[in-house]
Write a structure and sequence with these properties.
- It is a single chain.
- With 165 residues, this protein is of the alpha+beta class.
- The protein folds into 2 domains: 1-42; 57-163, PH-domain like.
- It has 2 helices and 9 strands; from the N terminus they run αβββββββββα.
- It is elongated, with a radius of gyration of 21 Å.
- The termini are far apart.
- 22% of the residues are buried.
Length: 165
């Protein structure tokens, strides 16, 4: 390899690294702007009640994310709602608790739940047929969102769907 080819390769590699860094910066800026736009719509999440009773169903799996209803691909970027994580979904008589690894838990009051169903995809995550458990609920601000959960054992979805009926 002569010095001209080496210099050309180094210049190309430098330009490529700078372009990738600029693209990542633009994506991060877009995510932050989306979060600021949605913060007013989302408001504050419901607080966990003092007593919840005994659990009726518990399922381990993956928290996929929350989206603005009915748009299954409009991911919510407020706080830590947009980040996937391992989670445990538990049903209580007063509502549903979603305990996420590395993030604060999400409490969904029973009176806020409008639907529980299975979906093929949510928040950019596509699973096998009916592989995502989607919980549609109304926030205290009045906005409806869908919360997606992919269970480790999808046979447990039947219990969630029967409980919703």
């Amino acid at each position: 390899m002569n010095s001209g080819t080496l210099v050309g390769s180094l210049v190309f590699a430098t330009v490529l690294v700078v372009l990738v860094a600029v693209m990542i910066q633009l994506m991060m800026r877009g995510w932050r702007r989306r979060g600021r736009r949605q913060a007013e719509l989302i408001g504050t999440l419901p607080d966990m009640p003092d007593e919840v009773g005994s659990a009726t169903i518990t399922t381990r799996g993956m928290y996929v994310g929350c989206t603005m209803a009915p748009s299954w691909n409009d991911r919510i970027a407020v706080g830590d709602l947009g980040y996937r994580s391992k989670a445990v979904l538990t049903r209580y008589p007063q509502g549903i608790m979603l305990q996420r690894s590395g993030a604060r838990p999400i409490w969904i009051p029973q009176e806020s739940i409008t639907a529980i169903r299975t979906e093929r995809g949510i928040a950019g995550k596509v699973a096998a047929r009916n592989g995502i458990l989607a919980i549609r609920w109304r926030l205290p601000s009045g906005v409806e969102i869908d919360t997606g959960f992919r269970a480790d054992n999808r046979d447990q979805y039947d219990g969630w769907l029967e409980e919703a009926s």
